Amino acid sequence: MTRSAIIALAILACALSASCGRVPLDQSAAASKVVAVTWKSAYAQNCAACHGADGTLAAARPMRDANYLASISREQLLAVSTKGVGVFMPALAASQGGYVPDAQIALIVDGMIAEWGKGGVPSSVPYSGALGSAASGATVYASFCQTCHGIPNGVSAGTGGTVTDTNYLRLVSDQMLRSQLIFGRADLGAACNGPSQPWQSAQRKLSSSEVADVVAFLASKRPQMRGDNP
């Protein structure tokens, strides 16, 4: 073997031994960016834009509401988060065409229940239920809701803002209307079905049937869009 061949083999051996056990630079950089996913980090990335950075004071329902979390079952909350509901709550789960791994959704749900659901009192009115009578709901609305939300024509907003405006009703689901009636917005100081409301001279809450009737009444004010199912 020539001297030059021996030198070449020596150089190659040194290069191989020097690189042995090293992770390529691009893989090492990628590995350094891996961060453990917590329920709060997953919530911040996928839920905070609509439900608030700390679960309050956002456009959508506050999730940091202990009474709400005590009233909705884990299975119901998981189903809503996974499959979506209404116009503005799309299906999040990857298994349903969304972009969030199903395991992360379960992580978020369990985290909210564990940390934000502490001390919650379940509502005497079930979280979900069938619609009642729109006609009866009109009477209940006039007696118990009109003081804050104005006459049901979308013109007079009342002190609490209108809930019969057609644009609003197009955007909210029946379940959202029901949840608003039962739980209100504690983060905004608005407890629709609480004893502090001005209409509650008798100091009573709406019954399950009255809630169902008011939801039916409000739903009847929702205009049907072209292409909607009959």
Poorly predicted spans: 2-25, 195-202
The CATH architecture designation of the largest domain is Orthogonal Bundle
Number of β-strand runs: 0
* Overall mean confidence score, pLDDT: 81
Q: Can you identify the CATH class of the largest domain?
A: Mainly Alpha
Rg over CA atoms: 28 Å
Report the CATH topology name of the largest domain.
Cytochrome Bc1 Complex, Chain D, domain 2
What is the global morphology? globular
Q: Characterize the largest beta sheet: strand count, sense, and whether it forms a barrel.
A: none
The proportion of residues forming helix, as a percent range, comes to 40-55%
Q: Would you write up a description of this structure?
A:
- It is a single chain.
- The protein is mainly alpha-helical and 230 residues long.
- The chain has two domains: 39-116, Orthogonal Bundle (Cytochrome Bc1 Complex, Chain D, domain 2), CATH 1.10.760; 134-220, Cytochrome Bc1 Complex, Chain D, domain 2, CATH 1.10.760.
- It is 49% helix and 0% strand.
- It has helices at residues 3-19, 25-32, 39-46, 48-51, 66-71, 74-83, 102-116, 134-144, 146-149, 166-171, 174-183, 208-220.
- Helix 11 (174-183) packs across helix 12.
- The longest helix is centred in the first third of the chain and has 17 residues, at 3-19.
- The chain is globular and about 55 Å long.
- It starts with a helix and ends in a 10-residue tail after the last helix.
- Residues 2-25 and 195-202 have low confidence and may be disordered.
